[in-house]
Design brief:
The structure is a single chain. This protein is of the alpha/beta class. The chain has two domains: 144 residues, Enolase-like, domain 1; 215 residues, TIM Barrel (Alpha-Beta Barrel), CATH 3.20.20. Helix content is 37%, strand content 20%. A hairpin with a 4-residue loop joins strand 2 and strand 3. Helix 2 packs antiparallel against helix 3. The chain is globular and about 60 Å long. The C terminus is likely disordered. This is Mandelate racemase/muconate lactonizing enzyme family protein.
Length: 384
């Protein structure tokens, strides 16, 4: 099939997270921040000459305007008129694109744009062959467990305990926090006792020395993992130093492509790697990482703080992994939800529909769209 048109859709949908407003309602570069009151996403809809449409999602949040421009001006036009009809041809096309755009970095807005297109191509192929992505990938299960990824509650122990109690009562037995003090994390542990796993993503705040000190003070909290404790996040020597505290470490969502993830795995500095489908190159790159991970003593648990096509693509990928591996979902109550799978339950039954199973609500797309562009074969140019 041939790619004839690519739509680029930037959305911002309000949500509730059960926390008090923190100062002004300005947005923040960290999506887990208490200042965030709505969450952006950047979707692509790729149309083929067969009449099918494939959906993809790029990482970005507040950098979405830059990724939008990268898509509109360079990445989407690159894919117009391209043909593919198999996994091998998707892999070849994405390799050509990665080589063409490599001068713009192995991470950042161009890479995010390529990730969105790759997801959409897999969605298109699934629809053409009439198979869901999990089946195309060779998975044997169509159910995946979920774990809620809570936003930050500004290290307030009472607020953390309240939110953890709510998700625990709903049946979740793995819960991720975005807090940075022992008091806040201890409140979560005290709430669930030893009946649930607690993970903590601290978002790269500390030097190696400070991170080790923090990790040692958290040793008795029995964390499943501590995520990205050091700045800069690619400092594998610092990660290895912090790992001596005995808490399993995770990292990888900020890796510069799958090559950087291989370096991270080879360093022996982490226990868990977290490739991120809408950041690092889509499904094609995720599969390369999974294959490389077989060579190292690491566990693959994807990062997923997405709520569109990226979330659904990650869910299908998780079906390839051991049954104990759960899908991360942003624990937010969308007003309104973009698609039905945002009504989270402890377990998700993957759709039998062909492709990634993402069907956005057209009214939500219309009501919350903040930017839109089309790259089309009709005139051989892109237009807004």
């Amino acid at each position: 099939m041939k790619i004839e048109k690519i739509e680029i859709i930037r959305l911002a949908i309000p949500f509730d997270s059960g926390r008090e407003k923190s100062g002004s309602e300005q947005q923040d570069y960290n999506a887990a921040s208490s200042r965030v009151t709505k969450m952006e996403t950047l979707l692509v809809a790729v149309y083929s000459d067969t009449g099918l449409c494939g959906w993809g999602e790029a990482f970005g949040h507040l950098i979405n305007p830059v990724t939008f421009t990268a898509l509109e001006s360079a990445v989407a036009p690159f894919f117009l008129n391209r043909r593919f009809d198999s996994v091998t041809e998707i892999e070849a096309l994405m390799k050509e694109a990665e080589q063409a755009f490599h001068g713009f970095g192995r991470t950042g807005p161009v890479r995010y744009a390529l990730s969105a297109i790759d997801i959409a191509l897999w969605d298109l192929l699934g629809k053409q062959v009439q198979k869901p992505l999990w089946e195309m990938l060779g998975a044997v299960r169509n159910r995946v467990g979920l774990y809620p990824s809570l936003v930050s509650y500004d290290n307030q122990p009472e607020a953390v305990a309240r939110q953890v109690s709510q998700v625990f009562e709903r049946g979740y037995r793995e819960i991720k926090l975005h807090e940075t003090t022992r008091e806040a994390v201890a409140a979560a542990r005290e709430t669930v006792g030893n009946q649930a796993e607690i993970m903590v993503d601290v978002n790269c705040p500390w030097s190696a020395e400070e991170a080790l000190r923090q990790a040692e003070s958290w040793a008795g909290l029995n964390l499943k993992w501590l995520e990205e404790p050091v700045w800069p996040p690619e400092d594998t020597n610092a990660l290895a130093y912090v790992r001596t505290a005995g808490i399993p470490l995770s990292a990888g969502e900020n890796a510069a492509g799958d090559g950087d993830l291989v370096h991270l795995m080879a360093s022996g500095a982490v226990d868990i790697i977290q490739p991120s489908v809408s950041k690092m190159g889509g499904i094609t790159a995720m599969l390369r990482v999974l294959e490389q991970a077989k060579r190292y003593p690491v566990t693959v648990i994807p990062h997923c703080f997405y709520y569109g096509a990226g979330m659904m693509a990650t869910a299908q990928f998780v079906a390839l992994l051991p049954e104990t591996t759960r899908l991360e979902v942003p624990w937010l109550q969308w007003t309104p939800p973009l698609h039905p799978f945002l009504n989270f339950q402890p377990e998700m039954m993957l759709p039998d529909a062909p492709g990634i199973g993402f069907t956005p609500d057209v009214q939500v797309l219309a009501d919350y769209r903040i930017d839109f562009a089309v790259c089309s074969n009709a005139k051989g140019e892109h237009h807004v």
